[in-house]
Amino acid sequence: EPEVTQTPSHQVTQMGQEVILRCVPISNHLYFYWYRQILGQKVEFLVSFYNNEISEKSEIFDDQFSVERPDGSNFTLKIRSTKLEDSAMYFCASRADRTGNYGYTFGSGTRLTVV
Amino acid sequence: AQSVSQHNHHVILSEAASLELGCNYSYGGTVNLFWYVQYPGQHLQLLLKYFSGDPLVKGIKGFEAEFIKSKFSFNLRKPSVQWSDTAEYFCAVSPNQAGTALIFGKGTTLSVSS
Predict the structure, then answer these.
(1) What number of CA atoms fall less than 13 Å from residue A72's CA on the CB side?
(2) What is the mean pLDDT of each successive set of 10 residues along chain A, which is 115 residues long?
């Protein structure tokens, strides 16, 4: 079964540093997403990406965050200057068609720890 | 704004007990509904989904859910739980529109004792 692949699985960074989280969505999917889950809290939507541009973003996704799909396969989330409260599990997801008939397929996540 | 409520924060059951986890959502239009499971240390996995048709949906591992439109509910059920069902369960809703994101409930922790 096709998978969404995320790297690294765990990243530790110092406060103020830039981090890039990487995702390889399922190849024929059209929509790409980033979600995060702070320890003990619910999964929160960050941003969706379609046709090489952001289609929707949440209040969490401020100017410190950016996404891009540089080469048609990778889908990256960049945090420019990390804060302690950015520590969370970050999930990438992709889905195929307009009404989500294939559901969302989630990656295994990247655990980001900001120290 | 859409929201999803999961009524039970932590459910503790013995093996072979029946399970029902509540989920209510607030959105007036057509929705897609999902239940995800997250086993300890693992990623989110889709248990089942509802888009249209029969409101009783069967998923993997013996789980099922019933969509009751009048109650804005999508409760998850399993007649007999196993120790291996110990996990976090998330209900999620997406308006039936292109590109919309999933809105998750806060999750329910299920602990099954053998």
Answers:
(1) 1
(2) 89 97 90 91 91 92 94 92 96 77 82 96
